[in-house]
Amino acid sequence: MDKVTAGYGVIPVIREIQIEIGNEETVALVGGNGAGKSTLLKVISGLIKPRGGQVFFEDIDLTALPPHRIVDLGVIQVPEGRRIFPRMNVRENLLLGGRNLRARQNVDSLIEKVHTLFPILKSKEKQEAGTLSGGEQQMLAIGRGLMAMPKLILLDEPSLGLSPLLVRAIFETLVRLKQQGLTILLVEQNVTLSLKVADKGYVIENGKIALSGSGKSLLENGQIKAAYWGI
Asked: Is the pLDDT of residue 231 over 70?
């Protein structure tokens, strides 16, 4: 992402953002509410067109591509709030995730992989998604994203509204996905856990990148400690 500026109205939400995600890296983007984290993900996904700058994936310029073409290239977003289809059952939700060109020939093996990662989804595959617990719905949302065979998965606040126990379970899942070779861009307000699992991180404040570095170095940074933990 090279000097991207974007927003929804006259005033831009993000300004000249530059981030880089290496292959098989986990990158954390952290910051407070309204900092511009979700806007940045929407630009990468093609849901918002930038006013300036460019977004590249595997040397392909995504800036002018429609969202469905970006999905076909392997860039998949798991949105904030899960956005599952509550009246459809678990299996049907997963099948919807595997409809793109890259995934549709591998649906059965992809469902098996999701069930291995989240066994509870296999036991509840005929259950309406809206009746699942919050944690199970988040697992379903991530599983649906994985059904699209992502090369890069964009996770928007996956721990939102979950109990501490379930938050830990979700982050343990992210570690497993990284070990399997998936490239991850994680947007989170849980700064500590995000930076612990991240190879590198970016701190966004008021639409601009304020700090960047390895996950470990940012965890030990005095500015981060003062801003997020009051130390």
From this structure: no
The whole model's pTM is what?
0.91
Q: Is 58 exposed, middle or buried (0-12, 13-18, 19+ CB in 10 A)?
A: exposed
Range list of H helices, the chain: 37-45, 67-73, 90-97, 107-117, 119-123, 134-146, 164-179, 191-197, 215-219, 222-224
Residues linked to residue 4 through DSSP beta bridges, in sequence order: 17
How far apart are the two ends of the chain, measured CA to CA in Å? 32
Parallel, antiparallel, or unpaired for β 200-205 and 208-214? antiparallel
Match 């678990």 to its residue by tokens.
90
- What's the pLDDT tens digit per position in 26-62? 999 998 888 899 999 999 999 999 999 999 999 999 9
Give, in degrees to the nearest 5, the angle at Cα 198 between 72 and 200. 90
Query: How far is C-alpha 230 from the chain's CA centre?
Result: 27
Distance separating alpha carbons of residues 50 and 186, to the nearest angstrom:
20
Phi, psi of 109 (to 5 degrees): -70, -30
- Strand 200-205 vs strand 183-188: parallel, antiparallel, or unpaired? unpaired
**HSE, side-chain direction, 13 A CA sphere, residue 103:** 26
Q: How many CB atoms lie within 10 A of CB 127?
A: 14
Closest CA to 28 of 223, 161, 139, 189: 189
> How far is Cα 169 from Cα 195, in angstroms, rounded to an integer?
16
